[in-house]
Every structure is written in C-alpha cells, then in structure tokens.
Task: structure prediction
Amino acid sequence: MEMIKEKMVTQKDLASTLKSGNADVLSTPTVLAWMEETASEFAQTFLSGDEITVGAHVTLDHVAPVWPGEKVTVVASLLERKSRKFSFYIEMRVADKLIAKANHIRVAVKRKDFSREDR
Result:
C-alpha cells in the first residue's frame, strides 16, 4: 500500500531561504517535511478521529538537487503496521530521477495527549 503526493518547489523551500545551506536548491528540511507529511496523512487513514501519529525515527539520504519550479513526487509505502507503530519506506523523485529516500517510523497516539488545550 502506498500514498503519492506531488509538490512544486518554490523559493520558500530552498536551502538558501531556510538557511540550512547556501545553495538555491530544495532543502533537506523541506524534503523531510514533505516525506513526513505524506506518511502522516497515509497513517491517518488507518486511525480513528481521536488518534494521530507522531514521527519517532527517520533515516534519510538526500542524493540529488531539485531546482525551483520543478515538481517532485513523494511515494510513501507502508512496510508494516504493528500495534501503534507504522514503518514506511519513502522515495522522492523528479520524473525517474531519485532525489531522496528514507525509512521512517510513526507512532499512533491519542490526540488529547499532544494537545495544549488539556494542559
């Protein structure tokens, strides 16, 4: 099973804008955020309304640059679901070119336990 999302790289997504580097290319923090977003949305389809997931672990290889105006495709594949733990393999590509790959674990929690409203 997998979820696929497409994103367009803009100025706000660049390493030079986010100060995570000096290059005018897609930043690694943005790569990670888009991968987590895709996995989070996918995991949410398995949960009840009072549950969410939180990121617990990630290993990420960012292997190629992406320039502003290019469209990336993020594919999150669910490898395993054990109780509250979701394990994903995620790839980001521009057409057939691999940009980044990651292994990512998310854990289901009660929404109220991560809400400041109850504190």
Notes: The longest strand covers residues 97-110.
